[in-house]
Amino acid sequence: MTHDVPLPPRTGLPTSEERLRAALLYAQNTAAVPPGAAVGPPRGAMITGLAALALHCFSTAPSLLDLERIDVLVPDLGEPAPAAGRPPLPAACAYTSAHLVRTRILPEPEEITGLPVAPVPRALADAVAQLSDVEEVRRLLTEAVRGGYCEPQPVLRELTRARLLGLPHVADAVESLLAEGRALAEGQLYAMVLLHGLPDPCWNVELRVPGGLHLGAVDAYWPDHGVALEIDARTPRAGAEAAWDAYARKRETLEQLGVTVVHVTPDKLRDALAQQATVVRTALMTSGEREPAAYLTVLPR
Known about the structure:
Mean pLDDT: 83
Order of helices and strands: EHEHEEEEHHHHEEEHEHHE
Strand content: 15-25%
Number of helices: 9
Low-confidence stretches: 33-41, 83-92
Helix content: 25-40%
């Protein structure tokens, strides 16, 4: 839920810090106050949206001075307090235009330059909610992953919570976000094999029963060991149930044919590369203790 706040005409040329602090002060005087409570800063209020992304140093976000308004995330406590129940607005609030974004689920803020700032996934969702250009949305989402600010999954969760995935321009941009996340995970997978001395697999191949059933694609396959590896980059999205079912059926079919399927996630490849290498090495070393896998045709992906 959002709430636009009219402010007095701007005077002078404020600094970025003055604009940010003015927006937070305005939130203090405008956010709803429970009956009988003293007026004060709304608990958990923080800078969000494009202003937050600028503070997180996104190169694709406008500079703070170029923003016409500052988004402030505040707890949704009900209707805003009436003007008569609030003290006069601080003079600093004439410096900026504030836009209150009300929420019942507050994230843990990060402190940047001494100010409370929404984490990147939430700031992205609040920014995307105000944008209609698919290329602008795509640039922000891509930088979030490519720049190492966050993984795709928490961004998808925030976009889902904000009910933004049903918008065509957001859905189109999300495909780029997921592709970027998978490309980074594949690079980490290559590094795992190289750095930890694993045998070279067949990379990105399609598996097929000779003359028969098509089994689907895997990210790596060791035919001499009957071990396949897949990057599990599934994300909870609208309409994804069919893809999830196909994913499970493929794994079950491969295991019935004697193929050991190792699943790794992008976050584990990023945070626990050595541990994932140990899992793969164990599967390769124990292949001789299992029944030989069925012969499969390996095709380029």
